[in-house]
Design a protein that fits this description.
about 65% helix, AhpD-like, Carboxymuconolactone decarboxylase-like domain-containing protein, mainly alpha, about 80 residues
């Protein structure tokens, strides 16, 4: 559970809503950290740009990205 309440996915701009809908389709619900990032659209877009850049750069294999995400989530006590 986040210490800061996230946004209501139905009350965000079109871009953010599409990202959150894609997350819900992939994982059953929007990711909690993205709901918090979406409180500030400029931060949300920056985070999404970082992940898009990592994904398209080819510098880190997608499987390794997934493992790193889960490890960081585990260290932070996140129920990923």
């Amino acid at each position: 559970m986040a210490r800061i309440d996230g946004v209501n996915p139905e009350e965000v701009d079109n871009y953010t809503q599409k990202v959150l809908e894609a997350q819900a389709k992939a994982w059953g619900a929007p990711l909690l950290n993205h709901l918090v990032y979406a409180r500030r659209p400029s931060i949300f877009r920056g985070v999404r740009a970082m992940w898009t850049g990592l994904g398209t750069s080819g510098l880190i294999d997608e499987k390794l990205q997934a493992l790193v995400n889960r490890r960081v989530a585990s260290i932070n006590g996140c129920e990923f």
